[in-house]
Amino acid sequence: MPDHIHLLITPTATLEKSMQLIKGRYSYRAKKELSFGGELWETSVHDRRVRDWTELQRFSEDIHQNPVKERSSEQSN
Prior knowledge:
Number of domains: 1
Strand content: under 5%
Number of helices: 2
Structural class: mainly alpha
Radius of gyration: 15 Å
């Protein structure tokens, strides 16, 4: 997806600290290697806790289907 990402992670620290590290490292590399000068991230994070195996499977499938759904909606417009 060109405008957002989905992650399934098991943070070793808090979710906020984990996202800070992910965003910081990605931003650093994008700016250095791609000479990107703009903002890459919005300030918010939408998190959902995975409570069991069934939810993990459902979230995984939702992530997998996200680009498929996006393409379908673009084609219908």
